[in-house]
């Protein structure tokens, strides 16, 4: 894929809106395909997972980061480098447990919901951006970190902020893979 | 000649690596190895005249593998690479390396 360097900025802006609109169309179609919100959420998570297992290599290639040595470093990496690279926003990171394996990302601005005001009444349990949870989960799994990722709060549902919770499931010592 | 392969046989290379790159040599050849945090291992064997192939391996990963295999929806992740385009570009890249010499 070759891109002329001068038009890089313009191309990114156009493709971001297209991406946001495409995402909205995707969610709308899933809502037509599935009656229950849980099914739509699960489908978004699966799709996100498929994206995440590939996106991690693109992220590693472009950011050239080294292995993270702690969960905290990993959470910071996701928020400050990955989110910035792909969505242009930098969520803030909170560590929400004493054991040091639960973190949350607080999104002030969520580009995916740029054109969405609120969820329809019949879709009150829909996690509109659940794709993001799947992406994070898939990407982490490819660097041998098992995690549960879900939305803890969602502005679309009336909460004050949008918050994604990441719970790492294994200790770092278990990360040494034997193949 | 130069061989390029993706495979797993590194019981002996369990030593901690700083940035995923390791190089060792025997009396016959030098082996260059790059491991990504995502578990991908790239191996390049050269003759002893080559110093470090780190940049070459990094280029193969970032510009060839990620662009042509990872981003290709028809290539299942972590399956043997079937993409003809990838093989062609890889071959062309290796041939363009300054230390590539036909025998």
Automatic annotation (TrEMBL), chain A:
Subcellular location field: Endoplasmic reticulum; Golgi apparatus, cis-Golgi network
Source domain of life: Eukaryota
One Gene Ontology term from the biological process aspect of the record: Golgi vesicle transport
SUPFAM superfamilies: Ligand-binding domain in the NO signalling and Golgi transport
Record carries keyword Transport: yes
GO CC, any one term: TRAPP complex
Protein keywords: Endoplasmic reticulum, ER-Golgi transport, Golgi apparatus, Lipoprotein, Palmitate, Transport
Annotated function: May play a role in vesicular transport from endoplasmic reticulum to Golgi.
Family, as annotated: Belongs to the TRAPP small subunits family. BET3 subfamily.
Name used for this protein in its record: Trafficking protein particle complex subunit 3-like protein
Origin species: Erythrocercus mccallii
Lineage: Eukaryota, Metazoa, Chordata, Craniata, Vertebrata
TrEMBL record, chain B:
Any single GO CC term annotated in Swiss-Prot or TrEMBL for this entry: endoplasmic reticulum
Location in or out of the cell: Endoplasmic reticulum; Golgi apparatus, cis-Golgi network
GO biological process: endoplasmic reticulum to Golgi vesicle-mediated transport
Family: Belongs to the TRAPP small subunits family. BET5 subfamily.
One matching Pfam family: Sybindin
Keywords, sorted A to Z: Endoplasmic reticulum, ER-Golgi transport, Golgi apparatus, Transport
Gene3D superfamilies assigned: 3.30.450.70
Lineage top rank: taxon: Eukaryota
Primary localization: endoplasmic reticulum
UniProt name for this protein: Trafficking protein particle complex subunit
Keyword Transcription regulation in annotation: no
Subunit structure, as described in the record: Part of the multisubunit transport protein particle (TRAPP) complex.
